């Protein structure tokens, strides 16, 4: 391929990513016309980019079309699939499977033939093993996730992993094993590793570093790596594949020198053998996206290093980027892709055209300068991708990178190479284990000294841009040292800038979080932070609250409406990982922590915003748990918010004796159930905005059809966390009547009337 086509190829692949993602009307027809026109030119420079763009766009369109149709949600499907991965958590087993056959159990349903990859949960499951074929009945839902500000994008992760539906394995009929696992070099290697008498941590890290088995690392391992900024060392990267290729190349060139002393420099076969070794190692490691990316980059790097009709450094960079996007278009959504290519681009910028270092001192200087220049750029990329910053990373990586690249990875790979000589293999892995313990000690010390920092959401982008500018200031040649120092000191002031999300006195920020079939409302004034309810806890033990904030948050009050699991499920997590000044709950409700009672008439004021309980009465013994719910009224300026928990219509009618003034925002009772939001309440309060906190595809069909129509007749803007994700609005003085949803309808806000979405009952 002519080297001049590298940049057009990469740009065309990026264009295909954008077109396939946004899918404008007439896209397929336009791509077909472009192919026809390019074919008539009969020029590779025109045809190749058009083919690349078309291929990437079509691949993404097909991937989107293969997701589970909404009409098959919660339907029984008979599936035959091969198990790709297994993770066990107590009674719960999580599977990723490759679908080979799928059909609905009931007649007259939509086909599910396009499904290729599923993520399933199974309770009290049989002993699934990777590589086996199974037949089971499943219930699925389209890939989705909670949509909350600055939280983990589970829906995006499912998309990147190519998972087209999630769900669970039915206990009846009982799953049947159709075929045992076939031969697999990777599984045999992991089984061999399990049979060795290695320290558990050494075994986990060896599996991850040499075989790409990151799933073997424990949560504590990942937390330490994240906090120290060394997560990049624990994936199969260009470093690992490059070391294998370099070792094979050196050995092969040594053999060539002995075999043909006069012509060994011209021998081509050592380079081909090194390329084959890179491909083989990536294949053994599972050929997952990081390994695939590393393989492509290593192959292009070998081509550049060979010097035989090879592209230049920047041409190779563009060529590798284009090839990776062609092979795996979804990698455009993987932060690791941009981390890798940004690091390589900076290395080219820094060192291209410079003389080769001499001696140990020269190479040591290169290593230190490279790590110090890479540190702010990598920190910016991690900050944008994960909203976290590891202050210890620059210093830690000065030691960790050479330790891993020069000792740990070579020792791990040498142990596999000498597996047929157990004493020597054991010696390599024994040394590996001791080095791992030393590295862990260093990382723990660094994290204790400089712990992980999670900046406020409004600081993430400015801080990342500042780090990029600092990198360029010190990487670009020709800049005066004084300019670099002054500019860097000025940029260091960015973390001190005030947050744009802070409220003024008299203002209230209300956020109804998307926590599935449950409720969690966050209330913030200038200096006060409270929660109404704590969200659900699922059968697996997961509480959605865990995905909203890192540990260590402070809350002035947590009001638990009542003790149902969909409202109080996150209370144990709040008590264990966060600082809560006081928990409040109705008399007689047990939420697992000491509480102060909520009683009608109790009131307090913070920053000019007034909070008042309208319910329950002092005596609640004859009330059901739902009807004991704390009913909270919050007044900010001329705006009023009402949250009624799960109280029923009888209690609602009683509340109208206390308040009949129209409200600005009503968090609809009982997730939109027909037992709440009665006609009298809706007509009397006429809320400008009504918000349903309900789960997507929930089995109760919340919000109820009649309740939705009732609110629509009053002209209320309707919002549902099931459709809109988290809903945020500001009340009080000098604020606009604006609502922000995390999952907005394309091109407009959600809600009813005007800019509002005409929300109907679930399909």
From TrEMBL:
Positions of transmembrane segments: 44-63, 233-252, 264-284, 332-351, 363-387, 399-421, 428-453, 459-480
Protein name, UniProt field: DNA internalization-related competence protein ComEC/Rec2
Gene3D superfamilies referenced in this protein's UniProt entry, alphabetically: Ribonuclease Z/Hydroxyacylglutathione hydrolase-like
Pfam families found in the cross-reference section: Competence (PF03772), DUF4131 (PF13567), Lactamase_B (PF00753)
Record localization: Cell membrane
Membrane topology label: Multi-pass membrane protein
Residue span(s) of domain Metallo-beta-lactamase: 517-696
Signal peptide: none
PANTHER family assigned: DNA INTERNALIZATION/COMPETENCE PROTEIN COMEC/REC2, RECOMBINATION PROTEIN 2
Main location class: membrane
Keyword vocabulary terms for this entry: Cell membrane, Membrane, Transmembrane, Transmembrane helix
């Amino acid at each position: 391929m002519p080297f001049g086509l590298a940049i057009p190829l990469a740009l065309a692949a990026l264009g295909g990513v954008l077109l396939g993602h946004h899918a404008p009307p007439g896209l397929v027809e336009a791509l077909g016309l472009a192919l026809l026109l390019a074919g008539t030119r009969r020029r590779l420079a025109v045809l190749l980019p058009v083919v690349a763009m078309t291929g990437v766009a079509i691949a993404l369109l097909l991937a989107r079309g293969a997701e589970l149709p909404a009409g098959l949600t919660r339907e029984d499907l008979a599936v035959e699939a091969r198990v790709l991965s297994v993770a066990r958590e107590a009674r719960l087993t999580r599977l990723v499977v490759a679908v080979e056959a799928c059909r609905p159990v009931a007649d007259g349903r939509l086909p599910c033939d396009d499904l290729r990859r599923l993520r399933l949960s199974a309770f009290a499951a049989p002993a699934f093993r990777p590589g086996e074929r199974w037949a089971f009945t499943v219930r699925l839902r389209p890939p989705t996730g909670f949509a909350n500000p600055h939280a983990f994008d589970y829906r995006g992760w499912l998309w990147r992993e190519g998972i087209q539906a999630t769900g669970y394995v039915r206990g009846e009929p009982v799953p049947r094993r159709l075929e045992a696992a076939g031969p697999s070099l990777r599984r045999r290697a992991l089984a061999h590793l399990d049979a060795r008498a290695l320290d558990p941590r050494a075994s986990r890290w060896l599996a991850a570093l040499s075989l790409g088995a990151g799933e073997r690392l424990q949560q504590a391992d990942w937390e330490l790596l994240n906090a120290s900024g060394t997560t990049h060392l624990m994936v199969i990267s260009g470093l690992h594949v490059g070391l294998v290729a370099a070792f094979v190349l050196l050995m092969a060139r040594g053999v060539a020198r002995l075999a043909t002393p006069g012509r060994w420099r011209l021998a081509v076969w050592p380079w081909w053998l090194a390329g084959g070794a890179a491909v083989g190692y990536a294949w053994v490691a599972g050929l997952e996206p990081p390994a695939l990316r590393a393989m492509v980059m290593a192959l292009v790097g070998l081509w550049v290093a060979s010097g035989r009709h090879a592209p230049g450094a920047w041409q190779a960079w563009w060529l590798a980027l284009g090839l990776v996007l062609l092979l795996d278009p979804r990698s455009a959504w993987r932060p690791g892709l941009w981390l890798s290519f940004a690091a390589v681009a900076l290395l080219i910028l820094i060192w291209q055209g410079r003389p080769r270092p001499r001696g140990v001192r020269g190479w040591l200087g290169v290593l230190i300068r490279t790590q110090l220049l890479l540190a702010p750029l990598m920190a910016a990329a991690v900050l944008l991708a994960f909203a976290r910053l590891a202050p210890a990373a620059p210093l830690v990586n000065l030691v960790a990178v050479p330790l891993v690249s020069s000792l740990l990875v070579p020792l791990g790979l040498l142990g596999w190479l000498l597996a047929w000589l157990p004493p020597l293999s054991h010696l390599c892995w024994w040394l590996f284990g001791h080095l791992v313990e030393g590295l862990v000690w260093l990382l723990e010390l660094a994290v204790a000294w400089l712990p992980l920092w999670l900046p406020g959401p409004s600081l993430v982008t400015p801080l990342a841009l500042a780090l990029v500018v600092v990198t360029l200031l010190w990487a670009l040649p020709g800049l005066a040292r004084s300019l670099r120092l002054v500019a860097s000191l000025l940029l260091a002031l960015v973390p001190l800038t005030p947050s744009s999300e802070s409220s003024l006195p008299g203002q209230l920020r209300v956020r109804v979080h998307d926590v599935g079939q449950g409720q969690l409302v966050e209330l913030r004034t200038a200096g006060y932070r409270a929660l109404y309810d704590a969200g659900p806890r699922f059968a697996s033990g997961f509480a959605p609250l865990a995905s909203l904030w890192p540990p260590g948050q402070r809350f002035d009050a947590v009001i638990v409406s009542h003790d149902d699991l969909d409202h109080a499920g996150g209370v144990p997590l709040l008590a264990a990982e966060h600082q809560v000044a006081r928990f409040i709950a109705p008399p007689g409700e047990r939420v697992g922590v000491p509480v102060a009672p909520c009683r009608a008439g109790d009131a307090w004021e913070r920053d000019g915003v007034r909070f008042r309980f309208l319910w329950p009465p002092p005596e609640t013994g004859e009330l059901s748990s739902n009807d004991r719910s704390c009913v909270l009224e919050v007044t900010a300026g001329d705006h009023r918010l009402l949250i009624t928990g799960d109280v029923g219509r009888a209690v609602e009618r009683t509340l109208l004796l206390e308040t009949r003034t129209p409200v600005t925002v009503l968090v609809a009772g009982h997730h939109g159930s027909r037992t709440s939001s009665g006609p009298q309440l809706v007509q009397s309060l006429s809320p400008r905005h009504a918000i349903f906190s309900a789960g997507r595809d929930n089995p109760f069909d919340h919000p109820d059809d009649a309740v939705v129509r009732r609110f629509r007749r009053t002209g209320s803007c309707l919002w549902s966390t099931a459709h809109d994700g988290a809903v945020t609005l500001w009340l009080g003085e000098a604020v606009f009547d604006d609502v922000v949803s995390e999952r907005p309808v394309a091109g407009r806000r959600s809600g009813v009337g005007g800019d509002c979405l005409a929300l109907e009952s679930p399909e």
